[in-house]
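SAMPLE LOG
Freezer: B-3
Tube label: C17
Construct: single chain, 549 aa
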Amino acid sequence: MKSIKTKIFTIVLTGIIASSVIIGSFGVFWSSTAIRNESSQVLDLMAQVQTDGLNSMFSEVEQSSIVLSHYVSENLDDFSIFQNEDRFSRYIGKLEDIAFYLANCTKAALSVYVRFAPELTDEVASILWIRRHGVFEQDSLCDFPIYESDFDNSWYYRARKYGIGVWTKPYYNEDIKEYVVSYGIPVYKNGKFFAVVGMDIDFDSIASVVNSISVYKTGYAFLTDEAFVVTYHRSIPSGTRIVEETSDFKQLNLGLANADFYEYIFKEKKFRMTYKNLVNGMRLVVSVPTSEIDSERTRLIFMTLAAVFLIVLVLSLITLWVSRRLTQPLKELANSTSHIIAGNYDVKFTHKTNDEIGDLMDTFIFMAKSLKIQFEYINSLVYYDSMTGAKNKRAFIDERNEINRKILSAKDNGENFEFGVIVFDVNNLKFMNDNFGHKEGDALIKNACTLITQIFSESPVFRIGGDEFVSVITGKDFENRTELLTKFRSEMDYMKANRSNPSEQLSIASGIAVYDAQKDAEFQTVFERADEEMYKTKVAMKGGAENIR
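STRUCTURE (predicted):
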């Protein structure tokens, strides 16, 4: 007969073994999943951040080239100017100043150029500004033959052939003696081609961004074309096909692959990579040897299994303590993933360890901070009006929904909730646009927004229409609303009397309404009262004119 002690020991030992196996299994599963997800997210995040930077550089050049092409076209009266030396000289002189200004405004530009169609002129008619030692200097383009359609990578012939703005592949520019990529855009007048405008980017500046990317121990980045042929690599010659025909890349080249990262083999060594398309047609590839990613997973699995083996040999209390110590960080990692998915990027860990799991936690924290920065930047584009800097109508809708939620919460909990809505409408915008131009009209809107935000500095200001703004006031602004409105009107009167610029002589109708818990079921009724008050004010300011809006 077995003793109670033996039975208890057997039951406890069985429980320890079962618990250890379960805990160990979940540990292996979570660690493998977490490392795989982390590696793909790190690769993707690194690629995305650097792609955004490179695309910003390319987009800046594209926008500046488009602006310059507009000036080149608009300042051309007719094609007879090419045969009149004086007129053409004045035309060129004006464009040289504009090109110089745009070049200095374009951080990524190494040079800016305008090349007129050789068949229209008797000489090499062109404009060229080159950045040397940080300063743009004027130079001239070399002559080249009349248009031939088979010059694939020429900034001039490529743009002319396709009829749209296009990027070249990297090449050595004989005019400026630098290795560059060029963006060229054809210019037309009344449907007739007459010039190519564009800019060069020093390829070294692109290469320096690519070379700065480092991931894991030896992971790096490089550039390829759309067929994954190397455009730039720190150690492999351009033109090298970096991948063999693995199943991943067969699907990828057919447009069928859809994965976080891809595997490929180069010189009998396996790599994992992710890539991002750049606006100039190249691809940024971030690549890591597969062995580096798998070594972390293997090491963590080995440590987990070793811990399980030790747990079986010790007493139940020590086993519980050790298992808790091992599993709690993994649970926090799993929970942090859920928080990140839910949009909470302020990740904190209470059970920090000085091992690979701790390194993984540090990586999660870094990843969460990076994601937070990216999403805050994206949200700033989504929720703010680009012209005035005020919040836009989408942000106003979110604010309305949040206020409605607070109204319901306050009523359910018997709490006092106070807020007010002020609706502003800028007068004379149509008059300003018609008589002084839309640029002055835009200035009028910006000046009105500046005044509103300065007076109601503690409250959000939204631009919900072309000339209509709304401020939702709470806190100090709500308590001082009467004084602030008086100050607002005084500032307008002062500007009318002391400013000579029409866009600074502001006339803004405003109307305020305060939330009344007894009769207001939602935000909309308060807004409508404020809008009606604004309308009355507008009528009074217009001398009682009908059909104001």
